[in-house]
Amino acid sequence: MHNNSRAQSRRIDVALTTFTMTETHDDERRGIFSPSAIVEGGGDDDDEAVRNQNRLFASRAATSGCCDCWHESLRASLPRDQSCLQFAPRPQLRQEELKQTEDLLAGEMSKLSVDERSKALDDVHCVGEAIVETPEMLRQALFKFGEEARTQSNSVYEIALQQNRQYVEAEAFRLKFLRRNVFEIKSSVSQMMKFLQYKAKYFGIDKLGRDIVLSDLTDEDRNLFRSGFLHVQQCKDRSGRNVLWFFNEFLGRWPKDVMIRTHYFLNFNILTSDPELQKRGTVFVYYDTAQPRNNAVNRLKMSEHLEILDFLASVPCRYSSNQLCLKKKQDSLSLNNAIVSCAMSMVPRYARVRTRLHYGSDMELQYKLQDHGISLENCPVDTNGVVRQDVARVWYDKFVENGLFTGYSNASEKGSDSPSENDMSIVKGAPSDGLLGVRPNDVLLGRGTAVQFRPGNIRFRKFLDEYRDAYDKARRVTKGSMVTELSQTLKSKGVRFLKAGKDQQWVECNDGEVEKTIAQQFRSGRKEKRKA
Fold first, then answer.
1. How far apart are CA 202 and CA 261, in angstroms?
2. 357: helix, coil or strand?
3. Does 364 have pLDDT greater than 90?
4. Sheet of 242-247, strands arranged across
5. What is the mean pLDDT of residues 318-337?
6. Which DSSP letter does residue 387 get?
């Protein structure tokens, strides 16, 4: 047993040290920005060295014609003492120097068909539609996904299957990647493989076969959530999408592993927790609040910077609108020119054509966001460019308090009914974490207060209360169809019904068991009403 464990560890170590830092080469990602925008001089003494490096990187990029190759040659060519992105301001840098990125975005739009361009513009202005799916479409996509997964299989994926095949092959898990890539099969599978590799690296091999829950985060991870670095706006945009704010003033203040773990939890557990959210996508707002002369911001290790960006490309969250808000200051433009150029090189065309650059004062930037369908209600930054800590720091605590993965603003339970942070994934006397990972919106089947007072069970009972009178008055033949319709409604909202299975794991109930539970709850409520 011990030898098997050591062998498995060697397999994962090899996999984690050999998997590539960038996605597979494809035509749509060739030659998309100039390398000279990335490495800036840090002082008079090394100006010539930096210029030489830039010429070397530019020639390699032109020769290879591929961003992935350029990234690898960039990392390999950097000396150990110059392995950081240096954002020293250049006096000659003006807004026009971001024209390369703007030309890239415009060029990508020109490659689209009229219909594709119209959809991209609708998404950018928050009037786009969610992905339309049909049962046959999902069936075929999941079948092809399984076939492709066998083709792209690697050691990490095989370990995940050995731990919990039902989790890794679950439709809900795989659909996240399919929706993220708009049902492009090969890209979806490649992304899942890389995602599992990062999961093993930053959370441990033993967690490959289950969801990551709050108790898996460290205190430092939770402090990052509360710092205001990342903010999920309470108000959704005009299309009903979540809005995620990212403030660049916090760059460099947190270790790479902390940033990756928190981004994992945010993207996988919150922003994509509900099928409707996956189909609509998320709005990303990059907001410039940095003081570029701050050393914490000016110097980032190149390898860490690229790995964080590469990880973000692996999470199954589809950003259907990217709003980049920049200040008209030389120092800020120098900083953001490097970050934006690098980021644009690592995202697919789908994201690039849905990206807009905005320039101006804080008031101008916020009005531009409003023009693009983003509400300024509960805006986490004021008109002076200062992050509002009274807004930015509270969202995570509200999320924990209300226990909602689909948006804490919809919570209806307070006080004693709200779960504590440690109660989010464990039910005493019942399976913990389990096959699918217990979520706050899940309805657990079982007896006792530990189950019945879970937030999902409470919401389930309150949901049925709205239909109780109609159910009691309905004829017997009508009640069955009513229960089926309610079951489908709950399923469409991402509510799962879980029961205790083998090996002390939670397993999802089938449709018949869900309908039986709903009917039983209606009958129980009738008995309680009579007693009262």
1. 7
2. strand
3. yes
4. 230-232, 242-247, 282-287, 319-326, 355-359
5. 82
6. B
Contacts of residues 373-377 at CB distance under 8 Å and 24 or more positions apart, as own/partner, are: 373/125, 373/126, 373/127, 373/237, 373/238, 373/239, 374/126, 374/233, 374/237, 374/238, 374/243, 374/283, 374/285, 374/323, 375/233, 375/235, 375/236, 375/237, 375/238, 377/234, 377/235
Nearest to 34 by CA among 13, 8, 12, 60: 60
Residue 391 to residue 472: CA distance in whole angstroms: 45
Tell me how far apart the alpha carbons of residues 85 and 75 are, in angstroms, rounded to a whole number: 11
**Could you identify the residue written with the tokens 């090189």?**
345
- Please count the other Cβ atoms lying within 10 Å of the Cβ belonging to residue 211: 20
Q: What is the 3-state secondary structure (H, E, C) of 140-180?
A: HHHHHHHHHHHHHCCHHHHHHHHHHHHHHCCHHHHHHHHHH
DSSP 8-state symbol, 348: -
Amino acid at 290: A
| Positive or negative torsion for Cα 316, 320, 325, 331 | positive
Please list, residue by residue across 69-105, b when 16 or more beta carbons sit within 10 angstroms of its beta carbon and e when fewer do.
bbbbbbeeebeeeeebbbbbbeeebebeebebbeebb
Instruction: Encode 439-453: b = buried (16+ Cβ within 10 Å), e = exposed.
Output: bbbbbbbbeeeebee
Give dist(CA 153, CA 143) in Å, integer: 15
Question: Cα–Cα–Cα angle for 472, 476, 479, nearest 5°?
Answer: 65
Run of H or E residues at 4: helix 2-18
Strands of 161-240, DSSP E: 230-232
- In whole angstroms, give the CA distance from residue 30 to residue 208: 33
Q: How far apart are CA 245 and CA 287, in angstroms?
A: 7
Residue 130 and residue 163 in contact, taking contact as beta carbons nearer than 8 Å:
no
Q: How far apart are CA 314 and CA 353, in angstroms?
A: 19
Among left, alpha and beta (phi > 0; psi -120 to 50; other), residue 246 is beta
Whether residue 72 has pLDDT greater than 90: no
The two structure tokens encoding residue 11 = 């397999």
**Spatial separation of the C-alpha atoms in residues 156 and 215, rounded to whole Å:** 23
What gap in Å lies between CA 377 and CA 294, rounded to an integer?
30
Task: Give the whole-angstrom CA distance, residue 494 versus residue 286.
Answer: 29
CA distances from 321 to 70, 100, 121, 147 (A): 27, 20, 9, 31
CA 369 from chain center: how many Å?
21
Of 463, 428, 430, nearest to 445 (Cα)?
A: 430
**Is 410:455 a contact under the CB 8 Å cutoff?**
no
> In one letter, which amino acid is 6?
R
What is the pTM (predicted TM-score) of this model? 0.63
Residue 436 has pLDDT above 50, yes or no: no
Please tell me the distance from the alpha carbon of residue 251 to that of residue 344, in angstroms, as a whole number: 17
Where does 214-315 show beta strands of DSSP type E?
230-232, 242-247, 282-287, 299-301
**Cβ–Cβ under 8 Å, residues 48 and 191:** no
- Measured in residues, the chain has a length of 532
Please write the tens of the pLDDT for every residue from 257-274: 999 999 999 999 888 888
